[in-house]
């Protein structure tokens, strides 16, 4: 665009901007409708013991059953919801639903639920967790809350206190997407995490890049010294699994053991079956 049309060199009536504003408006009202109509569902992805292949638990991942678009993945609406108050209601629904479903699983399994920094902003999530546990009857030790280091970037002191209160409830806390942020190593000593989840970007490259394999090996060594368990995310093939096992990883999650699917598809009764590379979902 040429300069001088508006204050910033573009007109406020720019068609592109109007389209973006329209799309956001539509997504906002559709999401409000989805909350009122119960259009969300949870899929679960198995978390597997790297050495015995026992299915120790599963991560709850939200999907939106859109009347026209079909099953919408979280990255197409969660970031938007995080910018408004919508994440509060969606997040509350996710937590409650996950606790209710997991209450029917074997007693030695865990359900992991994602909590984004935005969910720390308005309401204190501790009360929400306490309520979900009470309503579902799920023992606190069977719930794991996944947070990212971004929780500690925004409102650091307050949020550390809130996460401590969560731990006091008896739930465990995992550090999600480890390695993707800024000064990751320092967060390991900021807070007593129960688990660190090594991000998929490292797992993905570890068989091709020595530096990624080295990062994974040293993270596992370090967390082990701190008494923190590790989960490798995005494990897709046997070569990755073998390297991870050699490095001493505790748990794995990824397409090799299963894609996220409805709770009914989880099978806790036998070791996870490994899918052939390239096999259909
Ligand atoms: P995340 O918590 O890191 O979840 C893992 C994502 O990686 C999931 O994508 C999962 O389907 C995908 N994944 C797992 N294994 C593999 C693999 O082997 N290969 C590949 N290529 N991908 C794999 P999904 O379900 O699309 O979720 C994306 C992100 O959305 C999540 O990342 C999480 O940050 C967010 N999210 C999902 N559900 C919720 C929720 O209920 N609340 C909040 N606040 N965020 C959520
Ligand atoms: Mg997660
Ligand atoms: Mg993750
Ligand atoms: Mg990730």
TrEMBL record:
It is found in: Cell membrane. Residues 24-274 form the EAL domain. It comes from the Bacteria. This is EAL domain-containing protein. It comes from Blastochloris sulfoviridis. The chain holds residues 630 to 910 of 910 of the full protein.
